[in-house]
Amino acid sequence: MKELSLLFIGFGVVGRGLAELLLEKAEVLRSRFDLNFKVVGICDLKWGSIANDEGIDLAKALSLVESGRSFDSYDLPARRGLSALEAIRETQSNVVVEVTWTNLENGEPGLTHIREALRLGKHVATTNKGPIALAYRELSKLAESRGVKLKFEGTVLSGTPTFNLTLNCLAALKVNRVRGILNGTTNFILTEMERGVSYHDALKKAQKLGYAEADPTLDVDGWDAAAKACILANVLMDGDVKPRDVERRGIRDMSLSDVLGAVNRGLRVKLLAEVWREGGEVKVRVSPKLIPQSDILAGVSGVLNAITFETDVLGEVTVIGAGAGRRPTGYALLNDLISIGSAL
Q1: CA-CA distance, 93 to 6, in Å (whole number)?
Q2: Catalytic site residue from 228, 242, 270, 283
Q3: Are 190 and 270 in contact (CB under 8 A)?
Q4: What kind and span of H or E run contains 20?
Q5: Is 228 annotated in the active site?
C-alpha cells in the first residue's frame, strides 16, 4: 500500500476541511486507491506546531483546534515549536499541504514554503492562489526538475473540477478562450441587487453570512478573480500574466439602477473573468459585463461560480459549482492527494 506522509502548513478552515475528509474517507482511500496516509506534522501561526514522524493523532489535533485550544494541549509524543520551514526540512514528510493565507503582492510566505518543499523533492498540494498566480512557471519547472507533483486544484473554483477536467478529460483539446464567474462574493452581491437590495446592504449581508471579509477589497475590486484568471491563463494557455497585469474593474461602483436596468432589458450584470489570445499574447480581463439571460453564465446566481471553456473540438464546455467553502476546498486538496498518490 502506498503511504502519504503529510505535513500541514496552515491549519485554518481549509486545512481542517481536508483533515475532516481524510478521517472520513480513510477507508475509501485504502480500498479504492490503495492509499494510506499519516500526518507527521502540523504548523499554524495561531495553533502552534506539532511533529512526529511516526504520525500524530489527526482526530485529536482537529478536536483541540475546533474547541479553541492550541497544540500546547496535545498530550501525545511530538516535537513542538518548529517553524514552517524547519518542519518542511526536518520532518519525514513526502507531501506538503500548503494552506496559508493568500498574498497577491509577493506570494509570501506560501511561495517560500512551496519552493523549499519542491527543492527538497516533496510533493505539494496547495489552495494558496498567490504563489500559483505569481510564480507558476518557476514552480512547475522546479517540480518537474525534482520529479515531484505540484497540485493546485483548489486555487480556482474550490472543489469544482477545473484543472482535473481540463488537463485530464479535455487534455487533447485546445482552449481558445475562457469566460467565468470566479468570485462567489461578488456574484452574491449582484444577485441580491437584482432583488432590489442596494450594493451597500448586499455587501453587509454577504459579510454577515461570512461570504465577504470585513475588508472586502480583494473581492469587490476584482483582485481575487484576477488572480484566478491569471492561474487559468498561465496553466491552460501557457501565458505569463501576473495579477497586476490584468485589466481589472470590480463592482464597487455598480448602482442598483445599473443592475435593475439590465434585468429590465433582458440582460444581467456579472463580474466576468476573460482569458483569450490576441496577436500571440495571452490577455486577461476582469470587469462587470452585460450578458443576455440566455447565456449559461447569466443563470449562475448566489455564491456559485462557473467557467466556460471555448475549445477547438467540443465548442463550449461549462462547469458550475461551489467556488469556496471548508469541505469543497478540502475536497480539492483530497483530490490532489489522490493524484499525488497515483504517482508514488
Answers
A1: 5
A2: 228
A3: yes
A4: helix 13-24
A5: yes
